[in-house]
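We emphasize that the prediction below concerns an isolated chain of 402 residues; any contacts that depend on oligomerization or on bound cofactors are therefore not represented. The input was used exactly as deposited, without trimming of termini.
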Amino acid sequence: MRPLLITAGSRGDVQPYLALARGLRAAGHEPVVAAPRRFEPLATAHGVAFVPLSDEMLALQDSVKGQGVRAAITAARSVKPMLRRLLNDQAALASQEADVVVYHPKSLGGPYVAEKLGVPAIAGLLLPLYLPTAAFSSPILPVRVPHALNRASWRIAAAVEAPYRGTVRAWRTQALGLADGFRPVADLVTEGGVLHAWSSHLLPAPADWPASAHPTGFWTMSADDGWTPPERLARFLEEGDPPVYVGFGSSVTGDPETLTATVLEAVRLTGRRAVLATGWGALRPDVVQDDILVIEEAPHDWLLPHMAMAVHHGGIGTVAAALRAGVPQVVRPFVGDQPFWADRLHRLGVAPAPLTGRLTPERLAAALMAATELVSAARAVAKAVSSEDGVAAAVSRIATHT
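Result of the prediction step, given as a token string:
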């Protein structure tokens, strides 16, 4: 096969697609990944054929990192022109030879490139997004609804896409030359097939999903082979007991100083050492303490196995890495699907109840203490998750669509 894989977003959205490409290549196929250009070195390092797409929107996000919610909202007003340029880069992919397109819905253009090529389109989803179920409400719904409304709640996915629909509709006609007959991504996903790239141990398929939609397992690879930690990180890990990891990824907050103070006081109350990752600015520490190390980021697949537990926002990439590392998790969700995954981790027995509402040092410290009782459960889940080969399962299913 000649699969074309199209994704957009942050590293958490791209790395699983690179893992899938490696699996496809190992099975004798010829995959190409199209993704934001900043990930070309990562793709090259793993021998994956790569086509760079615009990463203006990522650069915009970088420019407002740590500046709070208001700056993020202001930056959002610049998105539509950038989106059109990202879509134009995807239009050029229609000159590629491909037998199937696997796309991340964030790309917005994936199914239409497949339409232009005349090949099957399969959505590769890192979270439940488009396939309705009565078992639970849409993970991106900001509030939980009565059970009777679960299936109806899944319409929100189409609403999220709505602000960009006019841009995509015009691009489809002007850049791809496709005739009228535009259909939203939400409709195309359910019709064209889907790969759900998470572990069934974290979220099993509900009874009303077809077998073809059952989770494949996480799409993972040894992405950090050869990664060498900075000397100060390596020394910190060697100098004492495994620390607590605290990082909130790309989440932002209007008051990073207060969140940072809360975290530092909670760590002090528990007498633990900690590694704080500043990420996109949810944490803004200015400390010099022997028992606290501040970093911007480090590969989770390398870092988390060295930790005693992980305190994070509930993003699925961090969730997956912590599950594989076999460490308890403490989740302070912010937006989107994060509360959903926080609840799943609690139900799975690898995390205390999610820290929603007002966060105090005492609440966080109590959660850290509770997490110490979950080590055995976390290790058992890690063993189960590691027995899955999500990439191999996805490769097999892709083959059935060509």
